[in-house]
Amino acid sequence: MKSNVGGIDRILRIVIGLVLIGLTLNGNIGVWGWLGVVPLLTGAIGWCPPYAIFGFSTCSMKK
To answer: What gap in Å lies between CA 17 and CA 40, rounded to an integer?
Structure first.
């Protein structure tokens, strides 16, 4: 499983995931906020299944 999620993309995924989960725990948004687990996990492991399916990558190119 080759990494296909780059630095800024990873940070944004983790932050968005944590914000959604935090808002859910505070009761500000409904149960759908638990979907924040998906970007949190993809950011943490650095691999996104849809990126792999479509051949997309935000990782910097290595020379």
So the answer is: 5
- Determine the pLDDT at residue 63: 57
What pTM was computed for the model?
A: 0.88
Whose structure tokens read 């944590």? 18
Q: How far apart are CA 35 and CA 7, in angstroms?
A: 21
Contact 9, 50 (CB under 8 A): no
d(CA 15, CA 4): 18
- Residue 11 φ/ψ, nearest 5 degrees: -60, -45
Domain residue ranges of the chain, discontinuous segments joined by +: 1-29
Sign, CA dihedral 45-50-56-58, equals negative
